[in-house]
Amino acid sequence: MLLALNLVIGLGHFLVLFNTGAYLPMIPRVAGSLGVNPAYVDWTQANFFLTMALAFPTAAWFLNRWGEMRSLLGAFLAFALASAVCGVSHDYGWFLASRMVQGYAGGITIPISLGVLLRHYTPPHRNMGLTLWGMAAITPFTLGPVLGGWITDTWGWRWLFYLNVPIALAVALIIAIILAGREMEHRHPGLDWVGLLLLLIGVGAFQSALNLGEIDDWLRSTTIIGLLLTGAAALIYFAVWEWNSAHPLLELRFLRRRNFLVGGLGLFLTALCFQGVMALYIVQFQLMLGYSAWLVGLLLLPLAVFSKLTSMLTHRYIHRLDARFVGFIALIGFSIGSFWVSSYNRPASLDELLWPQAMASLFLGALFPPFATIALSGLRGTAEMRGGAFLNLLRVSGQAMGIPIVGALWDRRRILHRHFLGEGNAMTREQLGSAQHILQRQGIVPEAAHHLIINRIDHQAALLAFNEIFHFAGWAFLLLGVVLLLAKHVTFAEPDARTRLAMEEMVEP
């Protein structure tokens, strides 16, 4: 019975996280099917992460109010329904709303499923259960782009959501059968509804401003200014409210601990940079270089091959080594990999593009664990659980905000390079005229020649902007490595090493 419970919990965990990585290579196809700009489809991924982030602080209320079985059953049924709507929807608004429901329902399942394993497993069997749960956590993230690209090119992007439905329904049914009659005593705690409302308004307003920025020209738009002011006011009020609350939604007092502040801030910024450049990499290699979704997935295959091994080694030895040193080395490795990617050019072959990913994969497994270990230093029991929920909100919010921020920065740099390439000086105009003359001699009409040259300029501008983004990311990872060294030495207050490891793994992507 316990083995069946572990397998179904692991399958549900895999399913939720698989929908984060597998969806990225589908974005250009989804944009074409729904008839919208790819920038709008980026919102469906960013808002998926945002609602998942908001689910973590509320999961404990669902657990205590409705119990393990009802909470997981309802969450997976909602996930299945939202997936079905995504699969059949031809309307962008419905698709976006369904992706947000997917994210929230999936986010609810993650901490509750971990709690199920910790409660139902006796100590001799807990190691096996938590090990399988941790493997289910990292596998979909690394394999997601590869399998998602294959599904897109072979069956079509809608099949990701069609496949979600029977799997989510099966998980819900099996969980209901296994956990029926084994519920813990229900409590009816109050939820900090004021804090939740303020958090929803603050984070939602900021995310909406970031999503609209690339389209409405940022601070030249009164709508974006209004959203930013609303978000800032709501988050300031939220901080004051939570600091003085007897039962806060988020334990903001943890920020007084230097390690939690360094670990939490570093986790947020690392997730922001990493998810932003990953989304740019996967989407723009299709739009800019003409790669298929499957080939883009293959470019990321090294992440799946090596990151699992380095993750296992990191989790095994990080408590014997200095977590600050481990995190610093990982960030330095990612910095070098980002600088390497920034040297890409148009003729680069597929095998040349694989090497930087292979190098990055050696450090991916060690990229996030040190932040979680440092932030949770000195915490145990319920304090560690509350700290983990806070860190999850920071990490997933960083992933949500990284997509529009990096996308907007890339678009700005692309426009700047296009300006200098196409309108920079008289010599450039002479070169354009010469190129048009050569193309006309080859039988290409002037209008087609002009469009061909403009498209070539756009392509080169996009490639230059792409390289610059990864150059900026290289410096960002390097600076984050220096910030990590500001933390104090890690102390482990939780005596159960496997429980501590599970809490740290829950904070990772």
TrEMBL record:
Alphabetical list of Pfam families matching this protein: MFS_1
Its lineage opens with: Bacteria, Pseudomonadati, Pseudomonadota, Acidithiobacillia, Acidithiobacillales
> What compartments host this protein?
Cell membrane
Transmembrane stretches in the record are: 7-26, 46-63, 75-95, 101-118, 130-151, 157-181, 193-212, 218-240, 260-283, 289-309, 321-341, 353-377, 389-410, 469-487
Q: Which residues form a coiled coil?
A: none
Record keywords, A-Z: Cell membrane, Membrane, Transmembrane, Transmembrane helix, Transport
InterPro entries to which the protein is assigned, alphabetical: EmrB-like (IPR004638), MFS (IPR011701), MFS_dom (IPR020846), MFS_trans_sf (IPR036259)
**Protein family per UniProt:** Belongs to the major facilitator superfamily. EmrB family.
What is this protein's name?
DHA2 family efflux MFS transporter permease subunit
Q: Specify the superkingdom.
A: Bacteria
Q: Which PROSITE patterns match?
A: MFS
Q: Which residues form the Major facilitator superfamily (MFS) profile domain?
A: 5-499
- Topology term for the membrane: Multi-pass membrane protein
